[in-house]
Amino acid sequence: MSSTNIYKLRCSIPGHEMDVRGVAPAAFPDGAFVSVSRDRTGRVWVPNSSPDRGFSEMLCMAGHSNFVSCVCIIAPSETYPRGLIATGGNDNIICIFSLDRPQPLYTLQGHKNTVCTLSSGKFGTLLSGSWDTTAKVWLNEKCMMTLQGHTAAVWAVLILPEQGLMLSGSADKTIKLWKAGRCERTFTGHEDCVRGLAVISSTEFFSCSNDTSIRRWLVTGECVQVYYSHTNYIYSLAVFPNSQDFISTGEDRTLRIWKQGECCQTIRLPAQSVWCCCILPNGDIAVGASDGIIRVFTQAEDRMASAEDLQAFEDELSKSTIDPKTGDLGDIKMEDLPGREHLNEPGNRDGQTRLIKDGQKVEAYQWSVSDGRWMKIGDVVGGSNQQTSKNVTYEGKEYDYVFTIDVNEGGPSFKLPYNVAEDPWLTAHNFLQKNDLSPMFLDQVANFIIENTKGHVVGPPPPAGGDPFTGGGAYSSAALRQTSTNIYFPKTDGVTFDQANASQIISKLKELNGGAPPEHKLSEETVESLERLLQACGSHSSECPLTIQDINLLWKASHLPEDIVFPVLDIMRLAVRHPQVNENLCGEAEGVQLCNHLLSLMRPEGRPANQMLALRTLCNCFSGRHGRALLMAQRETVLSRAADLAAVCNKNIHVALATLVLNYAGCLHSQPDLEAKAQCLSVASRALETVQDKEAIFRLLVALGTTVFSDQSARDLARSLGVNSQISKFSSVSDPSKVGECCQLVLKELQ
């Protein structure tokens, strides 16, 4: 098969009725790809053997009640050997399709606004991004984690290979790196909204932005290269298999091919917005655009369109209208433009544009290196002389319109500047964001713009609606595994902190109480009560009766100032093991108060002794059914606050933190609550990055093993978070041997 270095049209596929917003290579059949559109459908295209070298529609998928914004492929599994298709839409949902039916297998709901970007990872993990400013991690039809931290719409997400790392790019101009649900790093450098992300390797990625630049980043935070060539927003990127060369598309009507860091070919399309692109397995390129047409380009001569079709494509391009307000062609001064003779001079690079004056018309041409000639790419139409509206100056810039918008009755009005060449939906979105208004008004504002600018458009009218953006399942068999002797996990009985020197605790209590200011000094009666309580609970026996007054005095004393409270916390740590104390302090009425009090003592800026004793008290609450019920109900808050203490450099705190995670893992074992297990995995994984103490590491490993034991979904989630590579370094630890042995068993479980 002969091939050239130049891409040319292979075919045009007029398969959608509105903008094509996403394309992705399908896992099956060979050479197929998927497209999604504002027409609310997704379609699977397979190569056909017809003379036009085109594609046939294999499947039309319908499941969204609004525009479809994005698509990605979930890799084949034992359950779905042909893979699955995930689509996100303006109806805030994600639909999951198989290749054998037009309706979704299931939907994923949780986002509060448009789902505009999707990325799939190993073991069925799916990552989504939304206008609601969050990204979400999905597995087995459930949301495992919500990644919060961006202050504007998340327009791009990406799961990096191998290391359990995830990326999100946002309209807040930043990119964030996430590991185990936590933001590890924020990348800054783009000067406008981040629109697309593409993986280069496990340590590098590309980003593109409305600022017309493409950036190459290391996951460690450095931007190693910036690429310029586009003249307007860049919407999408795709990387060739060599992990170096790539393609990009944008609002400047172009597909650009980049080789060895340079833009080596620019292909203009007869559509304003080239929303999306993907690279097919044979090296061909599929792009989707605002005219509803998918176009496929190829380097292989035997797949190129016929001479007639290539000429028809060029003729269509030459009839396009280009509005100078888009900025694609730079500033245009009619009187300074040369005549047609200027086209006799060759261009100096592929894609170079040249404007010439032909009477009262301005025409745009692009240099084609392969053909050695200037190709007409459209007629340039002026602004005000083509329209009935007058230009209005607002904040120092000229616009076709400046509307006054009243969103809330009785509230302040806002100015909305607008040019007819702009996308009304993008303008409406930016207007709402700039003025901190609810995205609920998006349709209302966009339709207001459309209604009040009817007849004043350049080129074909935009569809009446649409969003302004480019925008799992674990399908493994639950095969039984042969288990070797495992004395470490699952550990389902709670681990408690029982050791105590009662005389030392009382001695310290009396010493601190003696020096306390009068308003905080405990009465002799209270000290005696605490001493009696300590003796009754020190035996860990339920046979010693306690009075309600003793328990109430303990609760009151636990609110002493933080610099003198720790002996009381030590008594409370031992007391909550007693069934009567456990019931009284952890019961429905008092339990939440106890939880909130202990969490306040665990603030990162708090005293380490109080942090440790609060953690130990929580661990010991698991010894009674009331304590277990309380902590399971408060799990999300408790684990989130506890996880922050991994950053405190104190081995006793780390052991207590690891024990808390382990006790949660034990309670969750054999329960189907995958979201709760995801939090355990996340907290354990994050803690293992900073914890040094071997006992803490051991308990975290037992927690991981207990969480994933006999639970295929939890195993898949752990693998997708990169737990394997994270803990492998502990497998060779021999002092103590239990660390290495337990680690090896966890790794075996995750195979």
Automatic annotation (TrEMBL):
Ordered alphabetically, the record's keywords are: Cytoplasm, Nucleus, Repeat, WD repeat
* Compartments, as annotated in UniProt: Cytoplasm; Nucleus
Q: Which GO terms describe its cellular component?
A: cytoplasm; nucleus
Query: Is Cytoplasm set as a keyword in this record?
Result: yes
**GO molecular-function term, one example from the UniProt record:** ubiquitin binding
Q: Where is the PUL domain?
A: 487-749
Enumerate the WD repeat regions by residue range.
Answer: 147-179, 227-259
A Pfam family: WD40
Gene3D superfamilies (UniProt xref) = Leucine-rich Repeat Variant, PFU (PLAA family ubiquitin binding), C-terminal domain, YVTN repeat-like/Quinoprotein amine dehydrogenase
| The keyword Transmembrane helix appears for this protein | no
Q: Which family does it belong to?
A: Belongs to the WD repeat PLAP family.
Name of the molecule in the record: Phospholipase A2-activating protein
UniProt organism field: Oryzias sinensis (Chinese medaka)
